Amino acid sequence: MTAEQWIDVLIAVLGGAIRVGTPFLFVSLGECITEKAGRINLGLEGVLVFSAMAGFGAAYGTGLWWVGVLAAGASGALIALVHGLVCSLPRVNDIAAGIAIMGLGTGLAFFLGKPLIQPQAPQIPAIPLGGWSDSGAVAAALSINALFPIGVLLAAFIAWGLHHTGWGLKLRMAGDSADAARALGHSVNGIRIAATTAGGFIAGLGGASLSLYYPGSWNEGLSSGQGLIAVALVIFARWRPLACLGAALLFGGAGAIAPALQSVGIGFGYHLFNAVPYALTLAILVATCSPRKSLAGAPQELGVTR
Q1: Is residue 135 part of a domain?
Q2: Cis bond before residue 119 (omega within 30° of 0)
C-alpha cells in the first residue's frame, strides 16, 4: 500500500474504533457497575439484543430516535431488574441466572422483533468531526455517534462517583464486604438490585447504538456476542470505568480493521480480520487466567460462593 492508503486505513480504524466501540463502552460500563456491587450479569447479551429490538421498535413507531434510545435503556433496565430480583433469592447462582436471562432476552427479542426486520427507523444523528477534510472518506470515518460523548462523560462520572460519593461508597462496600455493609444497616440485596438495574439501563444504550446507528437496523444476528465480550472487557479493565473506555476503543479498533482494509481495496483475509475481536478476547482471558492477575482489583464478593 502507498503512504496515502496507510493514512486512510489508520483514519478509518480510528473512526471505526469509536463507531464499533460505542456499544462495547456502554455495555462494559453497565457491567462494571453491576460487578462493583458484587454481582455478575452474564445475561448482558440478552439485555443488549432485547434493548436493541425495543429501541428500534420505539423509534420506528414514534419517528423519534431519542424515544428509541430511552426505550432501549428502559427495556435493558427491565431485563436486568429481573436478573437482580432472581439473584436476590436464596441459593440462586448468579452465573446460572445470567445464562437464563440471556436466553429470555434473546428469545423475547427474536419473537417480538420479527415484524421489525424490514422497516427502517430514524437513526441517531452523527457528529461530523471530519468536516475539516476535503476527503469524503475521512469525513465519513470521523462521523461520530452522538451517544459516544455521552458514554465518555458517563465513564468519567462513574469513575469519580465510585470514590467521591455516598452511593459509590455503598456500592463498593456491597461488592467488597457484604457483612460490613449489613453491619452499617445497608440492604446488600437492595444495593445489588439497584446496581444491576442501573447497569442494565446503561447497557441498553449500547443496544440503541447497534440498532439505531451502526449497523443501524434490526436483525436477529445484530449483537454477535458483544454482550459476552463486554464481561471480558470489564476484567481486562480491572473494574475501572475509564479503563473500560480504553478497552472499548481497543476492541472497536480491532473490529474496524477488516472494513478499513476493504475501503482501500484489500479484500484478502476479510473474514480472518473479522475474527480479530474474538481472538483478542481469548488472548485477554489467557493472559489474565492466573489468580494473581485475574483477581487484581476485583470486588471481593465476586469470589464468594453463594
Answers
A1: no
A2: no
Range of the domain at 211: 19-126+147-303
Q: What is the mean pLDDT of residues 235-244?
A: 91
In a domain, 161, yes or no: yes
User: pTM to 2 decimals?
Assistant: 0.90
The residue among 66 and 225 whose pLDDT is bigger is 66
- At residue 68, φ and ψ (nearest 5 deg) are -60, -40
CB 32 within 8 A of CB 239: yes
Q: pLDDT digit string (tens) for 141-197? A: 678 899 999 999 999 999 999 999 999 999 999 999 999 999 999 999 999 999 999
Can you list the alpha helix ranges (DSSP code H) found in 144-214? Answer: 147-164, 166-176, 178-183, 188-212
| Nearest-angstrom CA–CA distance, 6 and 280 | 23
For the chain, the domain total comes to: 1
Q: Which of 99, 35, 108, 57 is nearest to 78 (CA)?
A: 108
CATH of the domain at 34: 1.10.3470
* 53, HSE (Cβ side, Cα atoms, 13 Å): 23
